[in-house]
Amino acid sequence: MSLEITVLGSNSAIPAYGRHPSAQILHCKNKLHLIDCGEGTQMRFHDFKIKKNRIDVIFISHLHGDHYFGLIGLLTTYNLLKREKPLHLFAASELMDIIQIQLKSSNIILCYELLFSPIDADKSKMIFENEDITVETLLLNHRIPCVGFLFKEKIHERNLISEKIKEYQIPFTELPSIKNGNDFVDMKGNVIKNSELTIDPPAPHSYAYCSDTLYHEAILPQIKNVDLLYHEATFANESINRANTTFHSTAEQAATIAKKAAVKKLLLGHFSAKYENLELLLNEAKTIFPDSEIAVEGKTYLV
Ligand SMILES: [Zn+2]
Description:
The protein is α/β, with parallel strands linked by helices. The protein is 24% helix and 27% strand. The structure holds zinc ion.
């Protein structure tokens, strides 16, 4: 199993130069998870052949419009398409009021169940879990309550060594227990150590999504050693004052967070509409953290 991220929108508040507001898809097996839903996200699904019916969970970081203005359109599209399965939405509690007033004024009653879980932006916790991943909130420092999300694969089962399984004639029914790390005891009471029957599974992967935030070291312990960090880099160094007053980060600050957290790779995003060319931001980040990359819309990144 592996996690993949498709970037659908990489810009900040104003769409510019072919770049769109924030939205990403996290792929895990056949399941898709939507992270933020800026204006036009549905059209990005179409552009990048994202199967929207595979999305069952949506995470919204905060209620600045560039992170959720595409949501009501998506919810009503699902209604028009007669979605049957529930949709789970995680966001600040006010979002449910906003959705309800929009649906009420259009006289729409959704034909599917919208399961809403309010996010507490004052306390980090695990908000979602399925058989493959867990999702924790990261408390960010922005003008309004805002969280990031830490996606972690669950620890995999151990890999069986098939020759050894044959050699010891281990019954099929015993395999799940061995995959879970247990020794095998045969009919005569002989113990065969698990280490002789299995090898280590691949290490679980992790992805941290951090948008939007002032430079904020408090997240470092939680994102330590993640495989991929997406961090907002709204501005270059020349606009550090503007970054501070708007509670955003520069590319260099994003790279400093990546370096201090010893992440494997940094993806920069949430760019200001003032930059047509993003080389300046990339170069500033690379001076601090060489394994930095610009988030490109439509591109899928292996975590
Ligand atoms: Zn914001």
